[in-house]
Amino acid sequence: MPTPTVVLVHGAFADAASWAPVTAELLARGFTVRVPPVYNRSLVADAASVRAVAEAVEGPVLLAGHSYGGAVITVAGAAENVVGLVYVAGYALAEGESLGQLQGGFPDSDLAAHLVYTPYPVEGGEPGTDVSVEVDAFPAVFAAGVPEQTAAVLAVSQRPLSAVAFGEGAPVAAWRTKPSWGIVSAADHTINPDVERFGYERAQCKEVVELDAPHLVMQTHPREVADVIATAAAATA
């Protein structure tokens, strides 16, 4: 099989630019890379969007998901041409399980006390609620370890997540039929690292790498993240 195209899936409170250092690293190594937007409206809708990107690729695809993006690839990874999953400080959900349910089994991270809930209009329906991170708290709880100026930019350009996504169960868990790899951010203040460890163990990841890294490990440790993705790509080629 040919080397898979790597599709990098960002998480909540971030956008595709959060993957920029890893994207540059993978491109320099000769990988074909796609970094689509995730609209953060609902787990099912976001997974359908990413799945459409994967299915538009000719040949095999390796999905890598950060944070909420891990939940997205868990569902989108059911696409036939997806050959593997890489979880990067991410949620590896089981069938029927929601983000809230998985997180609820562990002590809260520092993030929980710094979330902001903002109503948004929904045409023809009840208003929805966007969830974001307090701008002043963002550097410490979400972008720890990132240069101060970069963290400040990320804080004011964050993409909120609809509250619907927290309670929506995953209709499928692609890790049951696709090989997976995991990266634990041991210094994560956004997701309790034990949530990551538990999900990866349950998914029987082929390899789990623990890094002394914050939540935005793609920004602080791009080479190490790219190494895990390259290992997964080689194993699925």
UniProtKB/TrEMBL annotation:
SUPFAM superfamilies: alpha/beta-Hydrolases. GO terms for molecular function: catalytic activity. Pfam families: Abhydrolase_6. Residues 6-228 form the AB hydrolase-1 domain. PANTHER family: AB HYDROLASE-1 DOMAIN-CONTAINING PROTEIN-RELATED (PTHR37017), ESTERASE_LIPASE_THIOESTERASE DOMAIN-CONTAINING PROTEIN (PTHR37017:SF11). This is Pimeloyl-ACP methyl ester carboxylesterase.
